[in-house]
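TICKET: design request
STATUS: open
ATTACHED STRUCTURE:
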């Protein structure tokens, strides 16, 4: 992305140069504490726990460039923070997400949003098995094809997925929340629940700048 003339340089943390996720996240927190509205983590090659455990009142976007490893943005508790992964992410992305927004533009591994408590998670590509396992709150949206057992043991929150892209046994063992089945080609939930439709529209409007061209088709 080209930086407009006069714009403050975006701090960049080179993942391969640091390697240790605790040090990587410490550098990320330092940049956020300095008040930068945008920070980049570059060169991800499967490193785990990137942007995990962050807690704060920042109003910022963290961009992860490359292939994120397991548990990206795990236990994130930062209402004003948006973490955008421009590539794929491994298993457990958004595990125990509590507050904030996680956007993954590539495919996701198994158990995305495992034990999610709050916040928002949008996966633009395909997702592995057991997406949303034990979801207790928050909002999950998966645009692509899901593996089996999506929404397994869901206890709360909303999980949006296209009905024709759900794998076998979706919603197995659910005791609460709602697995919202979107109508192919329309993007609205079955049953026409306006509250749920508004939740989906508001989330998509907020993250639209990061969605691949044609993202409006889901609105």
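STATUS: resolved
RESOLUTION: sequence designed for all positions
ATTACHED SEQUENCE:
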């Amino acid at each position: 992305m080209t930086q407009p003339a006069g714009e403050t340089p975006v701090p960049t943390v080179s993942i391969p140069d640091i390697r240790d996720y605790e040090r990587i996240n410490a550098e990320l927190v330092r940049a956020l504490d300095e008040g930068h509205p945008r920070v980049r983590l570059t060169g991800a090659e499967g490193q785990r726990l990137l942007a995990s455990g962050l807690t704060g009142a920042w109003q910022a976007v963290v961009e992860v460039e490359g292939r994120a490893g397991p548990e990206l943005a795990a236990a994130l508790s930062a209402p004003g923070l948006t973490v955008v992964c421009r590539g794929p992410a491994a298993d457990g992305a958004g595990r125990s997400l509590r507050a904030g927004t996680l956007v993954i533009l590539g495919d996701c591994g198994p158990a995305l949003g495992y034990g999610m408590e709050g916040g928002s998670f949008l996966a633009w590509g395909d997702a592995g098995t057991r997406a949303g396992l034990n979801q207790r709150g928050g909002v999950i949206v998966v645009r692509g094809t899901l593996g089996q057992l999506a929404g397994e043991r869901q206890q709360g929150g909303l999980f949006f997925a296209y009905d024709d892209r759900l794998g076998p046994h979706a919603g197995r063992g659910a005791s609460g929340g709602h697995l919202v089945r979107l109508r192919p080609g329309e993007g609205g939930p079955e049953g026409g629940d306006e509250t749920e439709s508004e939740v989906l529209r508001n989330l998509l409007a907020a993250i639209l700048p990061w969605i691949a061209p044609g993202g409006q088709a889901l609105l």
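CLOSING REMARK: The radius of gyration is 17 Å. The helical segments are 15-18, 21-33, 194-207.
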